[in-house]
Amino acid sequence: MGLLDTLKAKTGRVKDKAGDFVQQHEDQIGRGLDKAARKVDSTTKGKYSDRIDSGTGKAKDAIGRLSRKDTGGTGTGPAPGA
Q1: Domain assignment of residue 36, given as a range
Q2: Which of 6, 33, 60, 76 matches a 20 to 30 Å C-alpha distance to 66?
Q3: How far is Cα 60 from Cα 34, in angstroms, rounded to an integer?
Q4: Is there a domain that residue 80 lies in?
Q5: For residues 27 and 82, what is the distance between their CA atoms, to the nearest angstrom?
């Protein structure tokens, strides 16, 4: 097995562990993202509210995708064959 194959195998295991962690703590992570967004928005006095909201939404979407990968949850895309 070559070096790249070994690295790919190890990153796959790390990704699986991260997915498991996210699945167990999805609510806490979401609350943390909201708290951080409120703090940054307050610190910048609302100057970047739209960007903060957008970034928080994208982060929550990514968290949702990670947590659903193990459970076989469905994404928001079209159904296969549709």
Answers
A1: 14-68
A2: 6
A3: 9
A4: no
A5: 32
> Which residue has tokens 């659903």?
68
CA-to-CA separations, 82 to 77, 78, 79, in angstroms, rounded: 10, 6, 5
Dist CA 69 CA 12 (whole Å): 13
Confidence of residue 16 (pLDDT cuts 50, 70, 90): confident
Contact indicator for 67, 26 with CB cutoff of 8 Å:
yes
Domain count, the chain: 1
Distances (CA, A) of 32 to 3, 25, 35: 37, 11, 5
For 71, residues 6+ apart whose C-beta sits below 8 A from its C-beta are 23
- Burial of residue 47, with CB atoms counted within 10 A of its CB: 0-12 exposed, 13-18 middle, 19 or more buried: exposed
Whether the model pTM is above 0.70 = no
Q: Does 32 have pLDDT greater than 60?
A: yes
